[in-house]
Amino acid sequence: MKVAVVKEAGPAERRVALVPEAVAKLHSAGHEILVQAGAGAGAFLPDESYSEAGASVVPADQLASADAILLVGRPDAAQIARLRADQAVLGMLAPLTDPELVARLAETGATAISLDLIPRTLSRAQPMDALSSQANIAGYKAALLAAAAYGRFFPLLITAAGTARPAKVLILGTGVAGLQAIGTARRLGAIVSAYDVRPETRTEVESLGATFIELTSVGPASGTGGYARALTDAERAAQQAELADHIARHDVVITTAQVPGRRPPLLVTGEALKSMAPGSVLVDMGASSLGGNVEGSVPGETVVADNGITIIGADNLPSTMAAAASTMYARNISSLLLYMISDGQFTVDLDDELVAGVVITHQGKVVHPSLTPSPAPSLTPSPTPSPAPSLTPSPAVPAEAPGAGQADSAQPPAAE
Which option is the CATH number for 137-320: 3.40.50.300, 3.40.50.720, 3.30.1360.70, 3.30.43.10? Predict the structure, then answer.
């Protein structure tokens, strides 16, 4: 099987889908690897390192012969135009936020596979879980960004010039990214508190040495697969009001909540920002074109408000650590690729729960259930009479969806 690694076209994207270590693994398994010239430059991986690992470094127009195209993000228009019906394209395609991209991929006839839809509750999917690997990096870097932007020390320091109190850091959302931010801030010496609408995350937070904040205005909001459900408007308003008091008492706030395909929940309002002390720092990991967790945050930019509050719109932190992020992502995507290869051929078994969870287009159709409309109810009456209603009340089943407490990059209903 022939596998191609494309140079990322996204703005400020420095990661690469495969690193030489992963190339060597695939090459030893009998696969031919084509790497676009310069694909690894952003991650400090020269073309020579790929050649030494067994890959052929070629220009972009020679990648078309590959059976599988590997990316980190989404293909651009030129890359989509080169796709064939017998090809597969793998990347973090974020299909829930871009239905037009899904339609264009379906038109090519290619099999499109999105790693950000991995069913993360399946144990065999863990080596392929790119969301978790990248969220780990993002949480780590968010804490470092906050420490760098904060004008005081994170740890308690006792010096000849006096004592510096430790910074008080609040993490909103305790998924993979949030937990890594907690651990990193703690290692830097800060006093850390954290909040999530899923009360079962309390143990994880406290195991890292942080204090778990409980809000009296919002009840448990756990959803399926370890995710948080979406809050109602009333719950969200109560959450924001009560959180404002906690936010005002902290020097640094890191927010991590995202909802796939939807606007991230607003956790820090303009009123809450006014209550913070000058010099405070907020890192909004939920910042995107759809909005953010912090009012006034701008993705990819640092904004200093009139009252001296610094707001960092941290929209693609893994790319700022491209070498580490690429190494981890390469293990994820190569694991998924090898899982879907049988007898040297790329196979799409939609009866496999894992495969069905990541394939979004196949044979010219959109096949992922999250992207296909539900069939309209039939207006034709049933030829058989309906059974008599049961007199035994059924237990209530709440509607569930990923929601405000989720702490990660965009993800389907299936954390973390």
Answer: 3.40.50.720
